[in-house]
Every structure is written in C-alpha cells, then in structure tokens.
DNA sequence: CCTACCGATCGGTAGG
DNA sequence: CCTACCGATCGGTAGG
C-alpha cells in the first residue's frame, strides 16, 4: 500500500517532468520548477527519485524500449513491406498523440543523458533505425517501393511524423485519423498529381 | 579599422555560439564555455555583445529574415506552383547545409527568446508558414497538387527538410544534389510504386 | 515531506 | 581584454 502511493508520486514526478522538459528543455527546468508543478519541495522529490539525470534516463529509455519492442512485433507479421511501413508510421503518430511529452523529450533532450546512458541510448536508436531501414530496403528489392536512397527515405519518414506533436491539437479542425490518412498519402503517394 | 576588428570578433562569437547552442542547447551553454571556444574570458565578450539573450536573438532573426525575404522573391516569380514549392524545398535544404548551426538554433532554441522578441519571432514564423501554405493551397486549386490537407502538407514538408542537419554529412555516401533529388522525389511522388 | 543549508556555477559588472 | 567579484540560482544532502 505504501509502495503503491510511492509509485504514484514517482509516476506523477516523471509525467510532470516530461511536460516541463518538453516546454523548457532539460537544462531550462529546475528541480524547484518541477517541485512546484508536482506540489512538493524540490528536496522532497529525492525520496521518490535519485537524481534529475535519472528522470531524463527513465523517460528516454521508456520511449526507446517502446519503439524497439513494437518494431520487433511488426517485423514478425506476414504483411507486405508497404503495410509494415504503414504500421510503423501509424505507431509513431499514435505515440506522438498519446505520449507526446515523453516522445519529445526522447527526441530532443536525449543528448543530456550522462555518458554511459548516452551511449546506450544512441545504440538503441541506431538499432531501431537499422531495422526500419531494412524494411524499406526489402520493400524496394521486392518492387513495392520506388528505388530511392534508403537513408533519405528513412529520415524523411521519421522527420515527417516527428513534428505532429508541435502543431497537432486534437479538436482543432482535424481528427487523429484524418491526420494519419493525410500523412500516409503524402509519404506514400506524394504531393504532386 | 578598429570597427572592422570588432565586427570580426563579434561575428566569431555569434558563429561559435550557434555551434555550441546547437550542440548543447542555449541553457546548456555558459558564457564561459563560449569564451573558451572563442579564445577570450567570458567577461571580455561583453565588449562585443550586450548579453547572452542578444546572441540568441541575432541568430534567430537572421535565420527568419532570410526565409522571409527568399519566400517573397519566390512568390514573385512566374513559375508553376509545383516549381515554387520545389524552390522553397531547395532553399530549406541549402540553408541547412550552408548554415546548419544557425538554422538548428532558430528551430530549437527560439523558445528561450525573451518575451517581446519571442512574440516577434513567433509572428514572423507564422507569416512565413502562411505564405508557404498559400502556395500549396493555390497549387491544389490549380489542379497541380493532390487535394491533401494544406497544414499537413506544409508541416510534413517543413519537417522532412528540417532534419537534414542531424544526419547529413557531406562526403558520406551521398552528395547535396543527390540528397535534394531524393527528398524532392519522396515529397512530390511518394515512396510507393 | 519540510527546513536549512552546502559548494558550484551562472550571467553580468566594476575597474583598470 | 583581464582580474576580481556580485547576487542569484542550481542539484543535492543532512537531519528531523
């Protein structure tokens, strides 16, 4: 029971930290800012977390773990390469909408991870990118996709979904489904007629 | 003569600041870090610039001014809408390659501008986006482009070119021209066959 | 979970 | 352009 309460507070700290890090950056967010948001003195939060660095760590690896496990699942399906890539785009958009603050932090503030965690994170991201790129490459080889440069295609896709968080606001003219449909059309069929 | 030297130092400070802000963020870069990079004590730099905030200001508005004046030029040409949009994509990629540090700072650290400059910057960006969106809208109306959501198309394009800076390294497998060709193909014709 | 406080570092100024 | 320094704020600890 005490454990439950402790975990709730801990999760609250992590959630509020993700929002603040997204809004003001890791360096721009002080433990006193975070305490004010959580409703606690800065010093008190150290009963729930070990350090400011640890907060960033937990957020970043939570996100990268999610992407990596989902990629593994998608790789195992029997779908076409086009559909596998669509599933990955869908995953990115969905995570952006559902857990945008954490995803933003993992995208922008990962560089402030401490040395060893930084290496681990970069490696995890590289592995994810390699897996994604392999699907594109195989899709081209299978004749499903245009013969573009694989890296360019990979990063164009990753970038295109990345900024959903910055300008998409639910209930402002376009639904999540319409958003996804439009992005899919653009990436797969292009803007020109 | 004395003025010339002063301006050179000032420009050096601005250039090194852009690199450091890009690498470590505005908040993560101290005036002492910057001084070390420039070859000066932190205090000495205040003979060339007024404040750390001013450095960020100059970098951000230099970039937004460039985009806005180039957009105005492109708008006045007689080219088709597709070609105008291609010209804008070309502009973004070229600026990313030529002045990537400053562009990155304007993209990521603008939020640390002081209140009034922040408003001005957001307004400038909004104006640019409106002008870009208008070209897409007119291109759709003219039947040159697919009838996708204009905002989605705009931000997908802006995002897709934005991350060139993060992964493109000259001389590593692909030239700037090939990069541009590939991005154009993807955005205009799509990935699917 | 709070008060009180630590050493370090910050942006910036004074004075030369 | 440097030395010396300011008040403020930082992440974190001690002790209760």
TrEMBL record, chains A, B:
UniProt cross-references to Gene3D superfamilies, sorted A to Z: Homeodomain-like, Tetracycline Repressor, domain 2
Keyword Transcription: yes
InterPro entries named in the record: Homeodomain-like_sf, HTH-type_TetR-like_transc_reg, HTH_TetR, KstR2_TetR_C, Tet_transcr_reg_TetR-rel_C_sf
Keywords from the UniProt entry: DNA-binding, Transcription, Transcription regulation
Location of the DNA-binding region in this protein: 30-49
Domain HTH tetR-type, first and last residues per copy: 7-67
Example GO molecular function: transcription cis-regulatory region binding
Protein name: TetR/AcrR family transcriptional regulator
Lineage summary: Bacteria, Pseudomonadati, Bacteroidota, Cytophagia, Cytophagales
